[in-house]
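sry for the spam today, last one i promise. struct tokens for design, 154 residues
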């Protein structure tokens, strides 16, 4: 397979998982699919294949003591750029799956965080953490207000 084809397949491969988590988060099929590690095994296997093809004595040396200029030069190679992109796809989807699972477990709203994670993984992660903190804060305020309000039965 050509590098371009592998790159495009990887991009399209992740989209159904994102669509399920964002558009149909409470569907039983979504919950079942997102419990599986199979998508990560597939993507990580592709990553290993691309990574192995990216390693030369020169790239190994650059990766062993990374300097910004060396990393920039490495990513000018289509092979290394495709490897790095698949790395992003795997990790962003994994973080998205965690955000989705936490939302299902805690009831915290996650759609905005998942959309951010799809396009910029760390922003989605930060968004979810902040949303969780705000939810916890508001929940504790509501609990405190309920405990201090007079009992209407008395």
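last one done:
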């Amino acid at each position: 397979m050509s590098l371009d084809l592998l790159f495009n397949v990887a991009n399209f491969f992740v989209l159904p998982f994102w669509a399920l988590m964002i558009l149909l988060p409470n569907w039983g099929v979504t919950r079942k699919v997102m419990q599986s590690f199979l998508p990560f095994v597939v993507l990580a296997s592709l990553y290993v294949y691309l990574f192995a093809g990216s390693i030369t004595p020169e790239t190994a040396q650059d990766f062993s003591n990374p300097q910004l200029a060396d990393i920039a030069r490495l990513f000018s190679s289509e092979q290394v750029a495709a490897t790095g992109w698949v790395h992003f796809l795997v990790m962003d989807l994994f973080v998205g799956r965690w955000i989705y699972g936490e939302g299902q477990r805690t009831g915290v709203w996650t759609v905005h965080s998942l959309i951010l994670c799809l396009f910029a993984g760390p922003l989605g992660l930060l968004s979810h953490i902040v949303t969780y903190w705000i939810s916890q804060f508001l929940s504790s305020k509501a609990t405190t207000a309920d405990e201090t309000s007079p009992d209407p039965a008395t």
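The mean pLDDT is 93. ok im logging off now
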